[in-house]
User: Which sequence fits this backbone?
């Protein structure tokens, strides 16, 4: 079994996908019949679609594929503020995640360095970190909206606040657990504080720091969807909510797949970065 | 001869226990001194104090007429666990040390000097490899190259070969003997290995067991140089020397002499009449 080549696993994956999609297609075709009779008063109230007894059918994979083709054919169109291509929406979300994440890195990595190097500072800041870390980043949203008074910046702040903790804690841990003997090497070579920090501590802690960054970007990508649903305007989260209001279920399925694919790519990118700085004893 | 290093009455105390106190020793320029003793007598602490990595609770260490306040490039340490930076290649590790020694050097200068230092320990071919891709003996060679590359006035070694297998250890001992002789290097080494001490040292300090460990005896190694592992046990006086040290480690290290002056430690030298050299 250990010698199974990768393509056999890939084949099995494809088979599972085919069964899943096939079953879905058949189930959706059968379940798409006419609904029960509707109270005429109610029908008059809610309009034609309901009057015909029609319920928005759950989309079939073939519908989704057709819709996906439609969306991807022109992903970057802009037809007014409420009608922009899916590529534009994803780009907005990525921009927010990227900005919030980078700001978090700029704050968390130096602060984590200080905490890791100074047990006193670490112990002093620990209560704050422990209380603030488990707070859902969306709980910060009202405060952010009140103080910043700009919904786009507020969503970046929410990304910042959720990305900061894993990077902060991992940096502090990585820096604190640099081997004593490596620090002794730097000391016997009379390496200065800056040189020791950049040439010994940073490379030693880099894999741990990047593990934190990888966790952060994963959380940030989870949070941005919810944040954009709240804030609205642009972004993939807003787009999902908009398609729900349009009762366009195929678009929601597509958004789910797209969010998953982009999340995977973000994780892979950070994983590649982590491999680049990894070292082995 | 003037002492390059003079350890003056240092002590290491923990609450309720004194590891050693009132410890005096000297290392002269160009001299190779070995400190031999059982585990727990504070040997490594003595070496760390000499390196400046640790501070004594009492007393002081004078190097070149100045009391030391911390580590110095003039006293290079070869660590027991080699302590190479695993994210740098062998060459990178040596070049890092060279960069600390000569901040004005260019990258190319550092690289050339690092290659040269690695070539001296027989590692020219492995310069680009990371420590994880090197055997234990090769890693320690890199550690030796790193220490020697910065041309320190003194070499400090904390059981540098104890983690290696016997064959590798032997090869490295010969190597260190050669390198130290070539550079007329002042050196201080901690070891458990009696033969290693006899091969390398001019004087061997025998430390009694802790707590309250002392340097109980100084053995003067009169065996002629150059010494190699191949000829060592044929040298006249070798067996007397070895027996004397082993006897100390096996029995006398536990005995505490009544009258004993930490500043006038009894010394011993093998009393053999050397055969006339033809």
Assistant:
């Amino acid at each position: 079994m250990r010698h199974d080549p990768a393509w056999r696993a890939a084949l099995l994956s494809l088979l599972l996908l085919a069964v899943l999609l096939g079953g879905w297609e058949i189930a959706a075709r059968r379940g798409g019949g006419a609904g029960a009779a509707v109270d005429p008063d109610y029908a008059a109230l809610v309009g034609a679609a309901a009057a015909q007894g029609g319920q928005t059918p759950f989309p079939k994979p073939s519908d989704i594929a057709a819709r996906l083709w439609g969306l991807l054919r022109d992903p970057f169109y802009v037809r007014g503020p409420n009608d922009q291509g899916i590529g534009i929406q994803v780009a907005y979300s990525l921009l927010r995640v990227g900005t919030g994440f980078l700001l978090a890195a700029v704050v968390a990595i130096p602060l984590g360095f200080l905490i890791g190097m100074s047990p006193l500072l670490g112990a002093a800041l620990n209560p704050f970190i422990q209380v603030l870390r488990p707070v859902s980043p969306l709980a910060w949203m009202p405060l952010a909206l009140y103080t910043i008074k700009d919904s786009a910046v507020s969503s970046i702040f929410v990304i910042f606040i959720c990305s900061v903790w894993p990077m902060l804690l991992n940096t502090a841990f990585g820096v604190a657990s640099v081997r004593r003997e490596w620090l002794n090497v730097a000391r016997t070579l009379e390496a200065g504080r800056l040189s020791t920090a950049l040439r010994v501590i940073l490379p030693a802690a880099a894999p741990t720091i990047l593990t934190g960054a990888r966790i952060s970007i994963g959380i940030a990508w989870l949070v941005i969807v919810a944040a954009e649903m709240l804030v609205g305007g642009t972004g993939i989260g807003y787009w999902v909510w908009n398609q729900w209001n349009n009762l366009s279920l195929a678009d929601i399925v597509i958004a789910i797949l797209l969010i998953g694919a982009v999340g995977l790519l973000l994780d892979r990118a950070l994983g590649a970065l982590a491999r680049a700085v990894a070292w082995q004893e | 001869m003037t002492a390059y290093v003079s350890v003056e009455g240092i002590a290491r105390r923990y609450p309720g226990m004194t590891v050693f106190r009132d410890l005096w020793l000297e290392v002269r320029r160009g001299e190779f001194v070995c400190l031999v003793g059982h585990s727990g007598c504070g040997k490594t602490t003595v070496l760390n104090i000499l390196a400046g990595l640790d501070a004594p609770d009492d007393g002081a260490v004078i190097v070149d007429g100045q009391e030391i306040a911390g580590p110095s490039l003039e006293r290079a340490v070869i660590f027991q666990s080699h302590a190479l930076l695993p994210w740098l290649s062998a060459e990178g590790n040596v070049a890092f040390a060279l960069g600390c020694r000569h901040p004005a050097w260019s990258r190319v200068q550092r690289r050339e000097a690092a290659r040269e230092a690695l070539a001296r320990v027989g590692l020219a071919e492995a310069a680009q490899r990371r420590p994880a891709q090197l055997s234990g003996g090769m890693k320690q060679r890199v550690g030796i190259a790193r220490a020697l590359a910065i041309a320190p006035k003194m070499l400090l070694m904390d059981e540098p070969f104890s983690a290696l297998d016997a064959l590798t250890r032997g090869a490295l001992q010969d190597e260190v003997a050669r390198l130290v002789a070539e550079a007329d290097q002042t050196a201080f080494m901690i070891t458990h290995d009696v033969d290693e001490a006899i091969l390398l040292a001019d004087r061997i300090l025998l430390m009694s067991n802790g707590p309250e460990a002392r340097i109980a005896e100084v053995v003067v190694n009169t065996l002629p140089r150059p010494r190699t592992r191949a000829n060592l046990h044929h040298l006249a006086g070798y067996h007397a020397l070895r027996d004397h040290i082993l006897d100390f480690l096996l029995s006398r290290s536990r005995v505490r002499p009544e009258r004993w002056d930490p500043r006038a430690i009894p010394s011993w030298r093998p009393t053999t009449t050397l055969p006339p050299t033809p």
Q: What stands out?
A: The radius of gyration of chain A is 25 Å. The mean pLDDT of chain A is 90.
